[in-house]
Design brief:
Elements lengths: L7 H9 L3 H4 L5 H19 L3 H7 L4 H5 L4 H21 L4 H14 L1
Helix pairs in contact: 1-3, 3-6, 6-7
């Protein structure tokens, strides 16, 4: 089933959620969305190593879906991930060290 979906990794991340009540909480929702974005990013990047095999086997993946120019969609996902992390920090009144770590992620990504 999961190999017939373009964005199967997003569904796998949703499946990892402990419960829908945890998913729908205001304070944890942005963090959850950041996790989904991160899963899509790393799975897509690793998927580019297996594109030829995926084509031969008829599998669908985000790396095949995005084609030869994944930079813009992956950058949007990175931005959404960082925005979710910042929003999580804001809604939970986290202090400066948290934002420093999020800033470190931005510096390493871009």
């Amino acid at each position: 089933f999961q190999h017939n979906l373009w964005f199967r990794n997003a569904f796998l991340e949703i499946d990892k959620s402990n419960s829908w009540s945890d998913f729908c909480r205001f304070h944890t929702f942005p963090l959850y969305i950041s996790g989904v974005c991160w899963t899509l990013i790393y799975d897509t990047l690793y998927g580019y190593q297996d594109r030829k095999d995926d084509l031969k086997l008829g599998l669908k993946s985000t790396s095949l879906y995005l084609g030869e120019k994944p930079q813009v969609p992956l950058s949007i996902l990175c931005g959404a991930m960082v925005a979710g992390l910042v929003r999580t920090g804001y809604t939970n009144d986290l202090s400066l060290p948290y934002y420093a770590l999020v800033g470190n992620i931005v510096i390493k990504k871009y």
